[in-house]
Amino acid sequence: MDKRERFYKTIHRESVDRPAFWLGLPTDAALPALLKHFGAKDFQGLKKIVDDDIWTVICPYHSPVSDLIEDPFKFSMFLEHTESSAERTLTQPGFFAGMEDPSEIDRFDWPDPAQYIDREAIRRQMAEAPKDRAIMGVLWASHFQLAFEAFGMEDALITMKLQPECFEAVINRITEFYLQANQIFLEETKGQLDAILIGNDFGTQNGLMTSPEDLREFVFSGTRQMIEQAHSYGVTVVHHSCGSVFDVIPDLIACGADVIHPIQALARNMEPERLKENFGNQVAFCGGLDAQELLVNGTPDAVYQRASELLDLFPTGLVLSPSHEAILPDVPVQNVEAMVRAVRDRG
After folding, report:
1. For the chain, which terminus, N or C, has the lower number of CB atoms within 10 Å?
2. Which domains are present in the chain?
3. Where would I find the H helices in the chain?
4. 249 close to 241: Cβ distance less than 8 angstroms
């Protein structure tokens, strides 16, 4: 079974030789230790050695205020945007803090994604992508998170309740940006792309950031539009949200999400066993291997054992991966190797 076939059969919950596996996205700080440990010269060489099933292509975005498609607006009133998202915060007051009239939406200098998405770089990345893997475009399209950033989190929640038309005006405008940006990416990759990764962090460790009713009123219409857009190109949608999102997984399924990512295993009600029992016949998952505690502080034997348990629990329907896509420098390379070994031993 080749890697693309394995990916599709896994997410469609069909019989596979082994479930699909995704290493994730090691940060720049974590990558050197991984390259040294696995004897790889570069990231592509590392991917070949670990033998995972997904190759990612990140949408290249470069504007005067941002080089990140996941954070293309300069909403913060205090922090400068850089190529790194390390200084990004949702809690500082944003451009629309105190907004009282929906017409104020036009005061902001909204960027045109067509000006700042590098089409040639997309084509180059696709040409360089290995042909034997499922190709996943990383778009994020985080309209909910960015609405929080546009106001500042506290102000956004207050506006949502007291002046909902103002919150709606902002989140709809952000959604419009991403529908335009995503279409550019989908057009440039038409017929070559297997999946996209989009999403928002709806959850905290113990519950949702706001009520399910608020998400249904203000957020999920945009989510549905972006998923339907991707499906119109024949592309699978992996929907990301960190935290405890158990209560809205049915909503994400109803919006059309094909895969729920990342199964933050230590968040409330997000145990893989619970998700398999409640939703295992409705949707596929990606993630599951705890990156908060186990991968950071566990032994290689413990990582291997838990990865093996997840593969037993999900003989299909789970793309095994860390429960956060970014592998950080605090994850011992021996634990990454143990995860890889557990997958290999299923082959």
Report:
1. C
2. 3-344 (3.20.20.210)
3. 3-11, 31-38, 43-50, 113-116, 119-128, 143-151, 153-162, 164-188, 212-218, 220-232, 249-255, 272-279, 294-297, 300-313, 333-344
4. no
The C-alpha atoms of residue 136 and residue 157 are separated, in whole angstroms, by 33
pLDDT tens string 219-258: 999 999 999 999 999 999 999 999 999 999 999 999 999 9
Tokens of 78: 């205090």
Among candidate residues 237, 44, 20, the one with its CA nearest the CA of residue 129? 44
Report the distance separating Cα 319 and Cα 6, nearest Å: 10
Q: Closest by alpha carbon to 327, among 18, 4, 24, 19?
A: 24
On whether the CB atoms of residues 206 and 244 are closer than 8 A, the answer is yes
| Contact by Cβ (8 Å): 307, 338 | yes
Please give the Cα distance from 271 to 65 (Å, whole number): 39
Dist. CA 92–CA 153, nearest whole Å: 7
Determine contact, residues 244/207, Cβ cutoff 8 Å: yes
Token duo for residue 266: 């230590």
Residue type at position 132: D
> In the prediction, which pLDDT does 18 show?
96
Residue 250, both tokens: 């049915």
Q: Is the peptide bond before 262 cis (omega within 30 degrees of 0)?
A: yes
Q: What are the tokens at 162? A: 């007291």
Q: Are 57 and 136 in contact (CB under 8 A)?
A: yes
A 10 A CB-CB count for 207 gives 17
d(CA 178, CA 229): 11
Following CA atoms 131, 134, 137, 141 in sequence, which dihedral angle do they give, to the nearest 10 degrees? 170
